[in-house]
Design goal:
alpha+beta; two-stranded antiparallel ribbon; 1 helix; elongated
Amino acid sequence: MQQQHCPYCVGRGYFQLITGGSETCPSCEGTGSEKEEAREEMAT
């Protein structure tokens, strides 16, 4: 099975903040890969 990049952080696992610094992506929890549950929900 092929892992997909997280659609929100584009596979980086974090967001670069305008004010400086970064924040962990809440969707993939910093892994950069789309979660299995999210893929299953999109398929239905």
